[in-house]
């Protein structure tokens, strides 16, 4: 019996030493985080799946942040290099000008400076890049932009949990991640993977936004939960993170987004927009 106790003690001491060694090696192996010049806080908006409303939420979150705190300056970085949608959502077009020291000057609309790969390549040109080219594009978008002075930079991440997401989370200090999901199981599975990835790289998950939860027929007002109900709320509970808001599936959100007039500025007082503003206020 005594032998087992002694072995157990040695084992615990050994495993503690091993854990400490692994921690030191991890710390040595990880890239050193370097802040983005002029930016105080970076908030990333992520989703497991594409098409769940991540970019729509990102722009409205950025606009909501300035609406809630008018004295704060907010910018948007579109890190979705394969499918940049910020130019359309923010109604912006054109090539960024350069400063004397060759930094790109973001394009601005609604008071929000934005940078996107969409400003640098042709609209219709498919971005068929291999991993290394994508990483080098991300590095340029992170380091070669003159943001001036920003309180918040909202980063619209590409969907998923791949190299780009990891590299952004490890190379710059990220204040927190907002995860967007529909209430559907298949989207929630990936949202959960996203949340776990951020936890692993020590990025605080600020909360989950449930998007497209309920559709209300404009004629008879009957409500339908097309993608299920409350899945993201339950996932937030399971993960122990905040549930930031429940945004309905609404024609106005789609139409205004397509026109480049985000709903937080074009229809701030409509009922479908208040959950968006509420989610910003609870950040
Ligand atoms: P992601 O960035 O996750 O790929 P997007 O933000 O581009 O998704 O949204 C995908 C499509 O869904 C867009 O056409 C957008 O206008 C629409 N959309 C997003 N959220 C809503 C919503 N709550 N109601 C209606 N349409 C929405």
UniProtKB/TrEMBL annotation:
It comes from Myripristis murdjan (pinecone soldierfish). The gene is NUBPL. The keyword Signal applies. It comes from the Eukaryota. Iron-sulfur cluster transfer protein involved in the assembly of the mitochondrial membrane respiratory chain NADH dehydrogenase (Complex I). May deliver one or more Fe-S clusters to complex I subunits. GO terms for molecular function: 4 iron, 4 sulfur cluster binding; ATP binding; ATP-dependent FeS chaperone activity; metal ion binding. This is Iron-sulfur cluster transfer protein NUBPL. Residues 262-275 have a biased composition (Low complexity). PROSITE patterns: MRP (PS01215).
